[in-house]
Design brief:
This protein is mainly α. It has 7 helices and no strands.
Length: 120
């Protein structure tokens, strides 16, 4: 029965991890909460990650980073630098194997190999 439910609503483990992640974000003191949420929002739009486990691993690492720096009192600019877009994109590059574009690149390469009559 659980397999059927997961097929309909998605991976229950990922949903549980999502709720745990959001609870951890909520516990961050300001301004760390706002900064973490901003990077998360950017990641959701920019990353194109198609694997739920990869996304949750990335978010777990993100919250770990902000929790660590919040505990140390590290200023936000020391965490993200002067260019938060560069910070976010560099951070996200560590999880690029499951971006939708990576899947499309592999699909294109395979399609051209097949069209050219080449074997893998």
């Amino acid at each position: 029965m659980n397999k059927f439910i997961e097929k309909v609503v998605g991976d229950l483990g990922d949903k549980r991890r999502w709720r745990q992640y959001k609870a951890r974000v909520k516990e961050l003191p300001e301004p760390y909460r706002a900064a973490c949420s901003a990077v998360e929002r950017y990641a959701m739009y920019f990353s194109g990650i198609t694997n739920g486990n990869t996304m949750m691993t990335m978010l777990d690492n993100l919250i770990d980073l902000f929790e660590e720096h919040a505990a140390d009192g590290t200023p936000i600019r020391q965490i993200v630098g002067e260019d938060p877009v560069e910070f976010a994109e560099t951070f996200l590059a560590n999880y690029s194997q499951d971006h939708w574009i990576a899947k499309e690149r592999r699909r294109l390469q395979e399609s051209i190999r097949n069209a050219a009559g080449e074997t893998s």
